Amino acid sequence: MTDQPAPEITICYNGACPVCRAGMTRYATIAGRHALPMGWDDVNTAPELFRRHGISFEAALRRLYAVDDRGRLLRGIDVFIAIWRRLPGYRWLGALAGSALIRPLAWFIYEYLVSYPVSRWSRRRLRIQAERAPG
After folding, report:
1. φ, ψ of residue 40 in degrees (nearest 5)
2. Which residues sit opposite 68 in a β-bridge?
3. Strand order in the sheet with 65-68
4. Which of 7, 97, 99, 107 is most deeply packed, by most CB within 10 A?
5. In the predicted model, what is the mean pLDDT of residues 95-115?
């Protein structure tokens, strides 16, 4: 048994994507250093989390998701805002990105300038790896 508190939020990211993995590893390291009650799951190893919320694996690869301790699902930029609001050194960014004035712009940037091209690149990498795999 561990003394670690139950996560207030569990972030689900695409661990097959080097960009996603690097970002979430950085955040998880900071959260761990401060013993913050945050969980981290790679969508490639935790598909049941998405099935419970009616999210396809493809959609889970497309954007960041999280589930809070009340079972509420967060998507996209709202996950980053939730992460940033909890992490020392990033709280100002969470407040800024979550403000009524900035959030719509942050949402657009995440959905169309970050999430979409990164997920296409990641899917292409997975397809190439599958084609090269023996068997």
Report:
1. -135, 120
2. 9
3. 38-42, 9-13, 65-68, 73-75
4. 97
5. 94
